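Lab meeting, action items carried over

1. Structure of the two-component assembly. Owner: GW. Status: complete.
Input record:
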Amino acid sequence: MKATWKLADGSEITADITNGTNMMQAAVDNNVPGVIGECGGCLSCATCHVYVDADWVGKTGTADDFEDAMLDVAEAERTDSSRLSCQIEASDALDGLVLIVPQP
Amino acid sequence: MTVWTPKDDGFADLTNHDTFANGAPHNTFKRLRDEDPISWTDYDQGEGFWSITRNQDITEMNRNFKVFSSARGIRMEDQSYEEYLARRTFQEIDPPEHMHTRVKLAKAFSKPVVAQFEEDIRDLCAEILDQALANDSFDATKDIARQLPMRMLGRILGLPDKDLPWLVEKGDALIANTDPDFTDHVLDKMETDEYRKMPFNSPAGADLADYAKTLMAEKDASGDTSGILHLIRAPGKDGSVISDEEFRNFFCLAVAAGNDTTRYSIAAGIQAMCHQPELLGQMQTGDDAFWDLAPDEIIRWATPALYFRRTLTQDFEAHGKQMKEGDKVLFWWASANRDETVIDDPFRVNLTRSPNKHMSFGQSGPHVCLGMWLARLEVRVLFQELSKRLKKIEPNGAHKFLRSNFVGGIKELPVRVHLQ
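Predicted assembly:
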């Protein structure tokens, strides 16, 4: 699938992602600044926080209880479209996904 | 000039605490990374273990917590299941149970919440440095590095200032429980099993447990909810409440881990300044972008937690080695942090290293350090404040390492300073 990250400076990074990869790992693999993933996708750090683009909210699923709690820990402000990107898995259904990286 | 040259012969005994009293055996780690990255060691005090020494291998295994479990203990020493249950904290519990505790505490240790302490930390640093720098030669571990984390810990936990020196002494006895300078109960030289069910297998654990009990009773009586200790006693998402034993263990963990890791990071940073004089000027002219990077490099250089252990829940093969269910596996952060395939010129401190794939906080796994933002902030502010007061800092005799294969730290750091 293809995914695009919109960065705070207005630039974009688009990459091909192997299905099954989580979107934190995909961001790290593609050097997307602002997505760090210090806990390796284990839901322990909230450094992979992104906003899901309005067109894609609902298609990426919803945060479970632990993710919901950890979203309160993120550095940037939490909104209704906030997710920890390690909890979003690449799949054909998400082809074209757009994620917005918060302003640091 | 290199900062520090490892002196081991490449075949150091990783089970022997005396090995580490000369600093981590980096020639041995280098040989293992090159020749035997999944290496078996026999252990005369218990079951042998596998040492994992490459950064990339540790990164992959650490996130694989279902196979590499923390739920049989995190140190080299064996524990019976009974001892494990009596001494465990959320450090020794795998997800998803681990998360019940983490989410209670994560907000209090988050980057934005911790950032609110910055001015507090700066005031404390000024106070500590005014006192330490009144002399032109002193022990930088004792007079600087030991002071700041202790006082911040008091603020975070909501403890009275008057109790802090006693608490730090007990915390040292817990975590440096193999160094006779810090405890009378030297772990590998004791024949008694009396404390095996106490935190860190230490009589200091018993003392701290009594202290915590009295403290919380007093707080409850006066309705005092300051500090983070009340957070951990709140019911979890599943309605579960921490037991008295778990609370005691968490308190001991906070006192021990909250203290010496940051202390030894600060000490290692000061040692680096002594041996790489260019660091002082870089710090003095550093902008915000510089200070976003510098603390991680200082913390990489320090690697206060030398390893954490995991236990295999199933057979696992890597690099042609067959590891078996139940085997102990040690992730040597100390080696990962000097792995030249991931960290260029690892024996030099490069304060603008980016990316910095160090693993001092246990990155890439569910147990990544809860206090990492606080640690980074303390290190940042301390070195900002220290560097702006100094014209020069130099060694004033040899530094001494802790006798421990678990905690890497410079316990004595004699320095001479020239002020601005």
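2. GW to write a short summary for the group page. Key points so far: The longest strand of chain A covers residues 2-6. The radius of gyration of chain A is 12 Å.
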